[in-house]
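Page header: ASSEMBLY MODEL / two components / 360 residues total.
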Amino acid sequence: MRNLRTRVWVLAAALAGLATAADLNVGPSGGSTVTAAFKQEGAEVESPFKRFSGHISYDPANVGAATALLEVETGSYDIGDEAYNAEVRKKSWFDSAAHPKAQFKSTSIKPGAPGSFQATGQLTMKGRVQTITVPVKVGTGPKGTVFDGSFAISRKAFGIGDPVWDGTLDDKVLIKFHLVGGK
Amino acid sequence: MKTTYYTRTAVSLHWLVAGLILAAVFMGWTMTGMEISPARLKLFNYHKWVGVTVLLLALFRLGWRLSHAAPPLLPMPRWQQLAAHGGHYLLYGLMLAVPVAGWIYSNASGYPVVYLGKIPLPNLMHRNRELAGLWRDVHVTLATTLVILVVVHVLAALQHHFLHKDDTLRRMFTWRH
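Prediction written out in full:
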């Protein structure tokens, strides 16, 4: 009898856990930001992507089961100057006409210290795919669960930027995200 | 007796800064008309580095001038004395203001200034598109004023040399310890 009662409690707890596994939407309107910082002759210039959207499924009690999918419109990269914005949409950079979206899709989540995990997934840009691992910090903001992280990529690995820029523009580009989970 | 000469440091810095201002103006004028390219981006950086150098040297010149009095103006009408002093104050003010306005414009555009590609300078303003446009106008207007003032400065020196036949221009080429 006692055994059964215990089982009921465990089941109830598990169900409660499932109930808190949040399916979250992220986007710029919810206060989320995704930026890319490039470095030219020592000066780091960080600029935002104005349009992106994603879904994150996250349960604090079962972090390992979390999933994330984020899609960023490459044509929405805003350097702050229309001429430069138009330049980076060109074929030698993002080629936004042929590849309007960059995508990150998680493949595995490794829980870390409380409030953090490592997300491994596939980053697709300009038709090329790279596997990346990103350390993510989880926090709680006024609007809900917040995910913060950054990772470096090689722009050349994605064929972004003509080689004539190599002496001026670093290959390493830092992607930073601040994702606020909303319903 | 008061000296009638500038120090060697004052004369050297005068010509060095004159050359750097000319270079910065020429670069600024060239780069803004260029198509987007690595050369254009590099020219923007070099322009900033030259500007920061002018700012540093102008500060040093001010300190030098305060500790090493400039020789008094040569005899000339009162209005010319006033114009000369006023012009020199303005030149010093603009040697400081033009680079600082450019620095703020760069920061407001999202570009930190990294002197010689190695030394990051503090950010004077957060990225702000509207303010960037405003500071570009301030920078260009002040720089244009500086160019006009330099032209007047040169014409006045030539006037002293060829019309009044005094030593005003000559003493910018000679010094005595």
